[in-house]
Amino acid sequence: MEYKVRPGVQSYFNETGLLEKLDQFLLDLGLERVLCVIDPGGFYSVESYLPKRFEAVEATFTEFNGECSFEEGDRLTELAKEHNVDAIVGIGGGKTMDVIKLVANKIDIDFVQIPTIAATCAAWAPLSVVYTEDGEYIDFYEFTRCARAVIVDPRVLIKADAKFFLAGLTDTLAKWYEGSIQLESMERTPNLELGYQAMKICYDFIMKDAKEALEAIYTQRINQSFVNLLDVIFATAGSVGGYADYYGRQAGAHAVHNGLTHLPEVKEFLHGTLVGYGILVQLALEEKWADVDEVLALYNDLDLPCRLADFNLSIDYPDLNKAIEVMCLDHSPMHFVRDNITHEEVFNAMKQLEDYLDQKAK
Ligand SMILES: [Zn+2]
After folding, report:
1. Pairing relation of β-strands 33-38 and 58-63?
2. What's the gap in Å between 302 CA and the centre of ligand 1?
3. Where would I find the Alcohol dehydrogenase iron-type/glycerol dehydrogenase GldA domain in this sequence (predicted)?
4. How do residues 107-154 score in pLDDT, each as one tens digit?
5. Distance 70 CA to ligand 1 centre (A)
6. Which domains does the chain carry?
7. In sequence order, what are the beta bridge partners of 125?
8. According to the annotation, is 254 in a ligand binding site?
9. Confidence bin at 197 (pLDDT 50/70/90)
10. 254 Cα: distance to centroid of ligand 1 (angstroms)
11. Pairing verdict, β 137-142 and 127-131
């Protein structure tokens, strides 16, 4: 594998006021004809800020069909070609951002991302996760072309359900616990050091700002902690992969997520929420109980799930073994925690965590 540095998007804005002049903003980027793909689910949060009419550029609008599939990619590609656009603008959640990247990279045009939820760093990361029309995972694809601009408007993001932001926080927190496994012990080049520091910044700011940021959502009043954590979820998290590449990759927390998604009981939970539980299992496997305490204190503050019962499961649940099998497959990121982790070790770590939480509750 070749180590590569991909710093990220060409410009990033975390401010209010840009959306009102979006058409002039696009023209200033040298764009004249754009296709705007809008996720109807997030439109309510952005609608009142967008220009009533696009005058500076010619804009065609279409609704995202809800899935980042090859079929939806083909439909948008045809639309982009038909209107001869020079850029595509995505307004919505992670799947909208992903399908935009798929199309823009396929026909080699610019793209601008306007996220309406902060659940992942999809607006920044140069890769797309592709699903079937029925929502089954197919694969992920990496790209060379990055966004011309990502526009994060706190007024928009604060309107989304808090569960998205919380999932974004735990998915981003995992960057530190998973990514630092390899980087901690190796001699880091300057670029790897940037990746390492980016992980550390994710961790530091989440620990410092999470509680107040959540307060901002509950009271619908933007504060500096909320603005900081938007940077962390989109830009800093995106920079982890950009500079650390595969040295900062996923490990135990995402492996736990990958296994759990095979159980119908957890269907209702967001990616980042399951990864958040995975952090605890990974730390139990590493026997880092002081870190478990620190993460539990954070989850307690944020009212986040931390045990199997919170996910409609228990340690005696028969199908849990199926999920653990997936966590321990040969190619699973679980083996970055340490080589050849066994089914039994993972089961024991989950059991220990349950017992530990029981003890604490007494
Ligand atoms: Zn993730």
Report:
1. parallel
2. 19
3. 12-154
4. 999 999 999 999 999 999 999 999 999 888 888 899 989 999 999 999
5. 21
6. 11-158 (3.40.50.1970), 166-361 (1.20.1090.10)
7. none
8. yes
9. very high
10. 6
11. antiparallel
Burial class (CB in 10 A: 0-12, 13-18, 19+), 325: middle
| 270 Cα: distance to centroid of ligand 1 (angstroms) | 10
3-state secondary structure the chain: CCCCCCCCCCCEEECCCCHHHHHHHHHHCCCCEEEEEECCCCHHHHHHHCCCCCCCCEEEEEECCCCCCHHHHHHHHHHHHHCCCCEEEEEECHHHHHHHHHHHHHHCCEEEEEECCCCCCCCCCCEEEEECCCCCEEEEEECCCCCCEEEECHHHHCCCCHHHHHHHHHHHHHHHHHHHHHHHHCCCCHHHHHHHHHHHHHHHHHHHHHHHHHHHHHHCCCCHHHHHHHHHHHHHHHHHHHHHHHHHCCCHHHHHHHHHCCCHHHCCCCHHHHHHHHHHHHHHHCCCHHHHHHHHHHHHHHCCCCCHHHHCCCCCCCCHHHHHHHHCCCCCHHHHCCCCCCHHHHHHHHHHHHHHHHHHHC
Sequence-separated (6 or more) residues with CB below 8 Å from residue 358? none
Please give the model's pTM, rounded to 2 decimal places.
0.95
